Amino acid sequence: MEYFFELLFSGLTRGSIYALIALGYTMVYGIIGLINFAHGEMYMIGAFTALIVSSVLTIYGLPLPAILVLTALAAAVWAGAYGFTVERLAYRPLRNAPRLAPLISAIGMSIFLQNYVLLAQTPDFVPFPTLIPEFAFLEPYGGIVGSSDLVILAVSTLVMAALTLLIKYTRIGKAMRATAQDQKMALLVGINVDRIISLTFVVGSALAAIGGLLIASHIGQINFAIGFLAGIKAFTAAVLGGIGSIPGAVLGSFVLGLTEAFATGYVSSDYEDVFAFSLLVLILIFRPAGLLGKAAVEKV
């Protein structure tokens, strides 16, 4: 039973990280109807930014909780700036182009960012400091759940709750929903659609950066290629839940994380990706719109 709960918490931890990345995919898709294939690199850039900032803050002897908070803020802001730049360079000039053009542009931006970080940093894995201290009261249960697991779950829950409140109860959130529903009508009622689209990229990138910081501290190492696989998995989670649906992205992420954890624990770690993508294939066959997605209705 202890092993089961260990796998359960491992799956929830994975799902929390996938959710932070998948939310960016689903928000961008909900706004402009396209997939930002450079989004995984925001996760990677956030992790590298966190490594640099935390190293500098450690020199000044700040307490660990302060380092964690300041590092998360810096990573979110810096990755948000990259998200804004990607939207301006890879998407906005192609807003009215055929749908294939911005997708190719985004893939090119993803390759560029990977190689940019490769040249600026190193192709090797880099050790990442442990920014989450072990809690003393967890010592008897250390074999089941660690403090980093709880912090990842807590931070992810708070971030997702804050995003929900932002979208449901603020003027910016209402503008996002209006833009997602009908861009032309949003323009007619005075909403700056370009600004809202850019803001969506910024928010999604910031969420991915926080995920990159948390998982890097949990695992203890990063490199320039970590964004590719994490991005693919998060995109899979978004499709599982229903691309364009924020609750669907969260649900799909936890389903995927738990599937991977239990497949790794009870079958073999070699089949982790096989189970994950097999689940995606089954969902696409039997429920193409995803778990919480709605089939699109074409108006004529």
Instruction: Please name the CATH topology.
Output: ABC transporter involved in vitamin B12 uptake, BtuC
Q: Structurally, how many domains make up the residues?
A: 1
Q: In percent, how helical is the residue content?
A: over 70%
Q: Main beta sheet: strand number and arrangement?
A: 2 strands, antiparallel
Uncertain ranges: none
Q: Order of helices and strands, N to C?
A: HHHHEHHHHEHHH
Number of helices: 11
What structural category arises from helix and sheet content? Answer: mainly alpha
Outline type = globular
Query: Tell me, what is the CATH class?
Result: Mainly Alpha
CATH architecture: Orthogonal Bundle
Order of strands, main sheet, comes to 1-2
N-to-C CA distance: 56 Å
| Count of distinct strands | 2
Rg is 19 Å
Look at the structure and give the mean pLDDT. Answer: 85
Beta-strand content: under 5%
Structure description:
It is a single chain. The chain is built from eleven helices and two strands. The protein is mostly helical. Strands 1-2 form a two-stranded antiparallel ribbon. It is globular and about 55 Å long. The protein has a single domain (2-286), classed as Orthogonal Bundle (ABC transporter involved in vitamin B12 uptake, BtuC), CATH 1.10.3470. The mean pLDDT is 85. Helix 5 crosses helix 6 (171-181) and helix 5 runs antiparallel to helix 8. Helix content is 73%, strand content 1%.
